[in-house]
Amino acid sequence: MNDDYVIRSVRGDEWEKVKELRLVALRDPAAPVAFLETEESALAQGDEFWQQRAAGAAEGRGARQFIAEAGDGRWVGSVTVLIEAQGGTDYFGETIERQQGHLVGVFVRPEQRGSGLVAKLFDAALDWAWSLGEPATERVRLFVHEDNPRAEGFYRRYGFEASGLLVPLETGAKEREYVYTRPAV
């Protein structure tokens, strides 16, 4: 089924498609436990925000967004990997102990779920993270809401392992950290 899709990084000029797929993701019934953003907050962003988001995820070593593109040009899935530099501060205000990637914005349209497309997106994201020169990416992490067992199951099957770190959210719920250590070469 997903052999008809191209997995690739976004281009800087594709901001309208970046915005469109993000809005679709934020309308998904799983969005409240999958994303730390609402559709309303995304809609409040101007074109310049989306242009900068696409440009920042298209080049350089700070971030890369990968999409699954159907033969007709429609985007059906996405994942973004952010590079967190050792010694910096992460989203939660904690010091980053090692050079690592952080997967965010994982989304596949409902009709594609269970097709293996997420694994192909993850393959591309991790391959890119491992390909970066010094400092080398030591691991890739992600966080999953405690009420999102489908996603958590996929992450474990893919090879991510729970680190034991739990992050409390303002809602009182928690997110679990999962890590994937760089394979030995």
From TrEMBL:
PROSITE patterns in UniProt: GNAT
CDD domains documented for this protein: NAT_SF (cd04301)
Domain of life assignment: Bacteria
Keyword Acyltransferase: yes
Alphabetical UniProt keywords: Acyltransferase, Transferase
Pfam families documented for this protein: Acetyltransf_1
GO molecular function annotation: acyltransferase activity, transferring groups other than amino-acyl groups
Signal peptide region: none
InterPro entries with a match to the protein in the record: Acyl_CoA_acyltransferase, Bact_Acetyltransf, GNAT_dom
N-acetyltransferase domain span: 5-185
Keyword presence, Ribonucleoprotein: no
Protein name as it appears in the record: GNAT family N-acetyltransferase
